[in-house]
Amino acid sequence: MEGLRAEARSMRIGFYVSMGLLTAMLLGGVAVLHRHILSPISLAAHELRQIRFGSPARQLPPVRIHELQQLLDLVPSLRVYLTELAARSGALEQEKNRYESLSLVDALTGVANRRSFDARLAESDHCASVGMLMIDVDLFKNYNDSLGHPAGDKCLADVARAMQATLYRHNDVLFRYGGEEFAVILEDATERQALAVAERIMSGIRSLRLPHPDSVVAPHVTVSIGVAVARREEGCSGADLVARADSALYQAKAGGRDRVCLYGAEDA
Known about the structure:
Radius of gyration: 30 Å
Number of strands: 5
Number of helices: 7
Strand order of the largest sheet: 2-3-1-4-5
Oligomer: single chain
Distance between the termini: 37 Å
Helix content: 55-70%
Order of helices and strands: HHHEHHEEHEHE
Structural class: alpha+beta
Strand content: 5-15%
Largest sheet: 5 strands, mixed
């Protein structure tokens, strides 16, 4: 996990350094183009226009002739320079894309992070319906207090992998929402489908049978899940959907934890 954080830091530094070098190269290239290429071409074009419209062409001074000769000599080198610059720009774009990808992943669990959650939620308003699962690892503070933070980190990573394995559709995405809380966004999902995913997650976590010696819920790690589904015609915003799922999660915890609650259900 520490390796992912180190790689992200290294990528960030490398990206800024590369951007600085590319900017310097571009500025230098512009100066060279203006001094040795654009200026001589402009003068030559002016003389050609004079000839085209019948004006007598004045004799170019030796310095201009020398500049034009330098321009012709520079063409092969310029072609190589531009090819190398294009290759470096492509490599920088790849580094940028890689850094952006890392910035959307939680370093501890390897699943999408809160920044990615916010972006995905904002994009989901085109869906006919959106399901939201808010998931909390029960009594996780007690787990850390009794077994230590390294064990807690491993627990969260194991829980995230187990939850990820229960998501079958490509557009169902798991996020680490913060601390021991996770979220799942289900695009174009019904309440029945969202509840089915929640039950699979519950079953997957229970099957891990991770010991939780300081839990009053069960001898192993469990989770509580709040479920909410909003249809587009309701005009429910992303923030409203999160609030609904949070409310259902609160009801699951108040009801004894290790359970699923659906927002708006009579028994929720």
